[in-house]
Aldo/keto reductase
Amino acid sequence: MTLSALPGWGSRPLGGSDLQVSPIGLGTMTFGEQVDPAQAHAILDHAVDAGVTLLDTAEMYAVPARAETCGATERILGDWFTQRPGVRQKVVLATKVAGPSRNMAWIRQGGRDLRPADIVAACEASLQRLRTDVIDLYQIHWPNRNAPVFGALYLDPAKDAEQTSIEAQLRALAQLVRDGKVRHIGLSNETPWGVMAFLREAERHGLPRVVSVQNPYALVNRSVDNGLDEVLHREQLGLLAYSPLGFGTLTGKYDAPGFDPSQPSLGRLSRFESMRKQRWARPETLLAAQRYNALARAHGLTPTQLALAFCYRSWRVTSTLIGVTSLPQLQDCLQAWQVELSEELLDELDAIRWDMRDPAQ
């Protein structure tokens, strides 16, 4: 299978940085779990040949997180770089340091704080696994504080605890930038308050400014539109949108009422029990996805085309991170770039959101 560069492709600046990224990036969290190294390398080859220049990973990948696969995705990427001389210089490489433990005792002994020394050590370990001298975008995977993320709807002040400050986190990241190990820094799974706090501390102390935020953005989770989009716009930050297909719910494969968990071929939500407990598998999410998927079909589109075109064409999004487990999936995601959505269809999407809100928030 050969995939050529898509019409109108081009690159975009990531926030106020000097990084130029493709409007579609490749997320790699399935590499090392659902995707073996050989298949991962084939996907990477075809994605780069098609014009993808942004690759995103994390120290904790593959997903679902297990001690046995922690770091596997970065190692797969590192092997690929080694076997493809010159390709490292063609891509923007992004990875992440895990935040405080979310029941992952194999990362920093399950520590509940992300200390400056942890950030530096994690970066150096990622550099070794990735077999590179520098990381283009180094991100904090989730907040090092009590915050409503990963499906939590409300802040509970009673859960506040003393943890490493944002200033101290920035100083550790600044050290990595000074040492030439990191070019730019970013955040992930952040709230509007968190983004503004990082910007304020950077300005106050003359520390590196974050250039991007990697948060979920999909038809079933448009929480970015609830205030974070204004922060991104006015502060000139890039949005790296992840899970644009809502963990597969916006492909139509889970549309049958009460999808059967005994059919792992459907995808992650059916294959991994731990993922069926997440926001993406809520009954409300599945119901909303069914409505969006039906709307796509009524307009002569596949559910995948509608969901991806929505992200691809949003002014909020700098690059949409697609996650695939096969070359046909990669081709479908890239070809969706050519889909245009009418104002009428966008209005219909907003009408469903008004009814269903953001069930996968």
The two ends are 36 Å apart (CA to CA). The beta strands are 12-13, 20-21, 24-27, 54-56, 92-97, 135-140, 182-188, 212-216, 238-242, 319-323. The longest helix spans residues 283-298.
